[in-house]
Amino acid sequence: MLIKKPSDIPSSEITDKKLYINRRTFITGAAAIAGAAAFGIRGLVSPEEAVAGTKLQFAKSKFSTDEKQTPYKDVTTYNNFYEFGTDKYDPANNSSAFKPLPWTVRVEGHVKKPRTFDYEQLTKLTGLEERVYRMRCVEGWSMVIPWIGFPLSALLNAVEPLSKAKYVAFTSIVRPEQMPGQRRAVLDWPYVEGLRMDEAMHPLAILAVGLYGETLPNQNGAPVRLVVPWKYGFKGIKSIVNIKLVENQPPATWNISAPGEYGFYSNVNPEVDHPRWSQAKERRIGEFFKRPTLMFNGYADQVGSLYSGMDLKKNY
To answer: What pLDDT shows up at residue 253?
Structure first.
C-alpha cells in the first residue's frame, strides 16, 4: 500500500504542551512521571519509571540547527507509524496500549562481540545529547524536532564490527495485540530498514530515546528509534529490537513494497521527484507557504562526501 498524501495542518490553536500531556494522561490512564529522579549522570530514570513524559538528562549538541522548532503537539500527533494505522493521527490515537518496557535490542552479525542491550544499558553507552534536526517526509511536509539520543556509532563500536560488515540492518517489534496496524497486511511485518556502514557510523546518525527533553511517546517510536536527518522520514525505523551487521544490502520495507517510488538510500533530493509529487519544495508544519527543499535536507556539507561519484538519480 502506498503512503497517503496528507492534508495541510493549520498552525492556529496550538495546545500548550503541559495541558496536552495532562489530557493524554487522563485519556489513556498512563502515569507520566515528569521530574522523576535521574538514574546516574549518563542514563535515564530507572527502567520501571521510564514512561512517556519522563525527564531526561542531556547535553546540547553542536550538530543542532537553530531553526524554529515544530510545536510538541504537532510532533506527537501527526506522523507516520503504520504499526498503529495509516492515518497521520492514528499513531497518537491507537498507541496507548503499547508497552515499551522492559525492552532489549540484540546487536549481532559480523561483529566480534554480539550482545543484547537492555534499555538502561543503551542509554548509558555515552552521554545523551539533544539534537535539533530538520526532518523531511517524502510526502512533502517537514518539521524541526529536538531529539534526545546518542550516536549510532557508539552502539556499533561497542560490539566491534568485523571487516565483512558493509551494511547495518534494523528490525522493528511485532506485537499485533498492541499495534492494531499490524493486524492488517498493509506492509510485510516486521518493518525493516538498512544503512550502509559509513552512513551508520556518521556522527549525524543517532538512536533517539526522547524528544523535547523527555522519553519518547509511544507514537513516536518508543523506546528507541533511528534518526537519520539527511534522509526521508520513513528511513527512521521505530521501536527497534534487532540490529544486524551484514555483508550485503539488507531489505527495506518501503523499498520492498514500492521499489519504483522508495529507493534504498532515500536521501532528500529536490532534483529527484517522487512519481506522484515533486520534491522541489516542502511545507514546514505550522507554515502556510512552501519553501525550497535543500539537498540532503540541508546537511550536504556534512554528508555529501558519502555519495561522491554516485548517480543520485539512479541511487535514489
So the answer is: 98
Q: What per-residue confidence (pLDDT) applies to 217?
A: 97
Q: What is the pTM (predicted TM-score) of this model?
A: 0.85
Mean pLDDT by 10 residues, the chain (316 residues): 40 39 38 32 44 87 96 97 98 98 98 97 94 97 98 98 98 98 97 98 98 97 98 98 98 96 97 94 96 98 98 94
- Helix/strand/coil (H/E/C) assignment for every residue in the chain: CCCCCCCCCCCCCCCCHHHHHHHHHHHHCCCCCCCCCCCCCCCCCCHHHCCCCCECCCEECCCCCCCCCCCHHHHHHCCCCHHHCCCCCHHHHHCCCCCCCCCEEEEEECECCCEEEEHHHHHCCCCCEEEEEEEECCCCEEEEEEEEEEEHHHHHHHHCECCCCCEEEEEECCCCCCCHHHHCCCCCCCCEEEEEHHHHCCCCCEEEEEECCEECCHHHCCCCEEECCCEEHHHCCCCEEEEEEECCCCCCHHHHHCCCCCCCCCECCCCCCECCECCCEEEECCCCCCEECCHHHHCHHHHHHHHCCCCCCCCC
Cell numbers that stand for 214 in this block: 523527555
- The range of the structural domain enclosing residue 233 comes to 17-270+295-300
Q: Is 192 within a domain?
A: yes
How far apart CA 201 and CA 136 sit, in angstroms, is 21
Is 38 inside any structural domain? Answer: yes
In a domain, 6, yes or no: no
pLDDT value for 53: 78
* Residue 50, pLDDT score: 56
Number of domains in the chain: 1
CATH number for position 179: 3.90.420.10
Compute the Cα dihedral for 200, 44, 211, 73 and give only its sign.
positive
